[in-house]
Amino acid sequence: MAGYSGGLRALADEAGTGPGASGAASRERLRHSDGPWTRAAGGAEVMRTQMAYVKTEFATAHEGVAGCGEGLSAFAVLGTVRTSWERRIEAARDECGSLAGSLRAVAKTQGEHDTAIRSTLAGIDAGIDAGVDAGADAGADTGAGR
Tens digit of pLDDT for each residue in 60-119? Predict the structure, then answer.
């Protein structure tokens, strides 16, 4: 760990793997949790489901209007507004479905990146520790030859 410099030392310390890391508070500062992402994805799915109910309720609310409103100029406007709202409801439903998948993908990708970074830092630690041990052994060998 002694081989870390500047920003890398600070990052290792924040991650709880560096020489200055101490206690759970330090390790928690860079810890990733997929909980917020998956909860948000679940919320988007709930909204998507609710949009299907809204669309059904919207259609039910307009049943029978065609027979009562024929010939009225407001009926044509109502039809235009209804069509517009149905498109908007469907677009919102599709967006919520897409968003749920994207949020889950973020959680998965971020978790994979965390694992890769942790592995890289562990490899750096192993290389530094090996170099320190080799340097200490070389110094010991030099001193023994006198």
Answer: 887 777 666 666 677 778 778 888 988 999 999 999 999 999 999 998 888 888 888 878
* Burial status of residue 37 (CB atoms within 10 A of its CB: 0-12, 13-18, 19 or more): buried
Torsion angle of alpha carbons 123, 126, 128, 130, nearest 10°? -140
DSSP track, 63-109: TTHHHHHTT-HHHHHHHHHHHHHHHHHHHHHHHHHHHHHHHHHHHHH
Q: Which tokens is 100 given?
A: 């749920």
DSSP-derived secondary structure letter, 19: T
Helix intervals (H) in 16-72:
23-28, 35-61, 65-69
**Total-model pTM:** 0.56
Q: How far apart are CA 30 and CA 111, in angstroms?
A: 12
Rounded Cα gap, residues 75 and 112, in angstroms? 55
- pLDDT 10s digits, 40-66: 999 999 999 999 888 888 888 877 776
Q: Tell me which residue of 31, 32, 12 sits closest to 22, measured CA to CA.
A: 12
